[in-house]
Amino acid sequence: MPSDPPPEAAFDVERVVCRLTQLERHGVCAFTISAGDWPLRGFVLRVGEGIRGYVNRCPHAGHPLNLLPERFLTPDGALILCSSHGALFEKSSGYCVAGPCAGRSLMPVALEIRWGFVLLADSVDVQALAQEADAAPLVEGPEGPPRAP
Ligand code: FES
């Protein structure tokens, strides 16, 4: 009969983003976690030996980055791709290196790993982060901010 897990193994299942095995299989996992009226939509991805998490909201027009489930990366897997207008982001930092929101960044989500699960870190206030993401200013116009004269 298996023994009970140690006390530090306990965690809130409502903060589970995905299983680590799921992340290994797909390289990226999308998630939606609700607390109150504001769902937090995000995704996690493998970056080398580590993982990163971001809110799934493009700083250009506020669209989700993916059109299809788990489809967040360029074909070579090197960068995060926004399917709406082609913005490209670094996987390790969320910094936009090309596209209409170049110079802006995806909003990070702090994560931790416990007992084979990826979870929101204890420091993450789901509702506050979801509201903050929703209120974040977007880039003006379809081609980005106005250019200096
Ligand atoms: S919404 Fe992402 S590039 Fe336009």
Overview in brief:
With 149 residues, this protein is mainly β. Helix content is 11%, strand content 30%.
Number of discrete domains: 1
Query: How many individual helices?
Result: 2
Major beta sheet, specifics? 3 strands, antiparallel
The 3D shape can be described as globular
Terminal Cα span: 73 Å
Amount of helix: 10-25%
Whole-angstrom Rg: 17 Å
State the order of secondary-structure elements, H for helix, E for strand. EHEEEEEEEEH
CATH superfamily: Rieske [2Fe-2S] iron-sulphur domain
**CATH level-1 class:** Mainly Beta
CATH topology, anyone? Rieske Iron-sulfur Protein
Bound molecules: FE2/S2 (inorganic) cluster
Order the strands across the largest sheet as they lie in space.
1-9-8
Chain-averaged pLDDT: 89
CATH-level-2 architecture: 3-layer Sandwich
Q: Assembly type of the shown chains?
A: single chain
How are the elements arranged and paired?
Blueprint: E1 16-19, H1 20-26, E2 28-35, E3 38-47, E4 50-55, E5 79-81, E6 88-90, E7 96-98, E8 111-114, E9 117-120, H2 126-135
Antiparallel strand pairs: 1-9, 2-3, 3-4, 5-6, 6-7, 8-9
This protein binds FE2/S2 (inorganic) cluster.
Describe the structure.
- The radius of gyration is 17 Å and the shape is globular.
- The strands form three sheets. Strands 1-9-8 form a three-stranded antiparallel β-sheet. Strands 2-3-4 form a three-stranded antiparallel β-sheet. Strands 5-6-7 form a three-stranded antiparallel β-sheet, with no helix packed on it.
- It contains two helices and nine strands.
- It has a single domain, classed as Rieske Iron-sulfur Protein (3-layer Sandwich).
- The protein is mainly beta.
